[in-house]
Design brief:
This protein has six helices and two strands; from the N terminus they run H-E-H-H-H-H-E-H. The chain has 212 residues and is mainly alpha-helical. The chain has one domain. Strands 1-2 form a two-stranded parallel ribbon. Helix 3 (40-77) runs antiparallel to helix 4.
Length: 212
């Protein structure tokens, strides 16, 4: 009987130790989309990115429209041209196509100017958010802080553990004041140009209520 009581006592001790250890491991999460939707500097960055995108896309479309017109004119006049003249026109069209593709790639490619500009403008904002999260995590002894916006495998989140509003307050921003207007987190997509190269996009801020 004493042996049985000892075993039960050890089991209770281990369960208590396990629960104490688990409770010491504090977790939290943020919604970076929601946080970004409150930041004027992020909205300004998005507007600048969108303006550049529109300007460069317009130039891409103009180049391809010029090529289309040259090709149509060439096809209409082809039978009247000598072989040397046809060759020269074809080479000119091919060169213009190559130039247009290179221009488009230099602006919208993976390492293009739009991507670099976005990194330049957004990186300091991301660092600001990270610093606020780091300070809160240190003060509250969070072991891990997840980002709800970038973790599609987070099937359920309890608002009790959402510290997004605390992060906003840490940065001197007022929770709930979601900024509206063009450039609210959505980059304009290039359209109309041929052989389009996708450029990095961003998502719109989430104006939903948060847990405190």
């Amino acid at each position: 009987m004493k042996k049985l009581n000892f075993i039960y006592g050890m089991m209770a001790f281990l369960l208590l130790l396990g629960s104490t250890t688990a409770s010491a491991q504090k977790f939290a999460y943020v919604d970076s989309k929601y946080i970004l939707s409150h930041m004027p500097e992020y909205m300004a960055a998005q507007r600048e990115i969108n303006d550049l995108s529109s300007e460069w896309q317009s130039q891409v479309e103009q180049k391809y429209n010029t090529i289309d017109q040259l090709e149509k004119a060439y096809q209409a006049e082809k039978v009247l041209l000598t072989e040397d003249m046809r060759k020269k026109r074809e080479e000119d069209i091919a060169a213009r196509k190559q130039e247009a593709m290179e221009f488009q790639r230099s602006k919208f490619g993976v390492d293009g100017e739009l991507f670099k500009k976005r990194e330049e403008l957004v990186a300091p904002i991301q660092e600001q958010i990270y610093s606020a999260i780091e300070e809160l995590s240190s003060a509250s002894q969070y072991m891990v802080v997840f980002d709800k916006a970038n973790h599609s495998n987070m099937l359920y989140t309890n608002p009790k553990f959402d510290i997004s509003d605390k992060v906003l307050k840490k940065m001197g921003l007022k929770p709930g004041e979601v900024l509206d207007g063009k450039g609210d987190g959505e980059e304009e997509k290039p359209s109309g140009g041929k052989n389009e190269t996708p450029k990095p996009g961003n998502e719109k801020g989430n104006p939903s209520g948060r847990g405190k």
